[in-house]
Specification:
The chain is α+β, with helices and mostly antiparallel strands. The chain has helices at residues 3-14, 50-63, 78-85; strands at 27-32, 38-43, 72-74. Belongs to the ARG7 family.
């Protein structure tokens, strides 16, 4: 199964659940968007990927350590997040 299909499957499973919804072991919740945030669950292995680190750097610049939704908040268009994460490998 490709990463993109896996990510989209995770989106279907976890999107729309409460912010306090549990996250499976080995995954982390991120909230993506510019005005309307959507919750995604991604493998923690993404934290080692340079392109994902660039998204986190943007998040750090905008939010510092104040992530109001409880998970990491990534302020980028959803399609940009999907494009970048669909190219990552677990």
């Amino acid at each position: 199964m490709g990463v993109f299909r896996g990510l989209m499957g995770a989106k279907k499973i976890f999107q729309g659940q409460s912010m306090a919804a549990s996250t499976p072991k080995g995954f982390l919740a991120v909230y993506v968007g510019e005005s309307q945030m959507k919750r995604y669950v991604v493998p923690v292995s993404y934290l080692n990927q340079p392109s994902f680190q660039a998204l986190l750097s943007k998040s750090e610049q905008e939010f510092r350590f104040d992530h109001p939704l409880g998970g990491l908040t990534i302020p980028c268009p959803e399609h940009t997040f999907i494009t970048i994460t669909s190219q990552l490998h677990n």
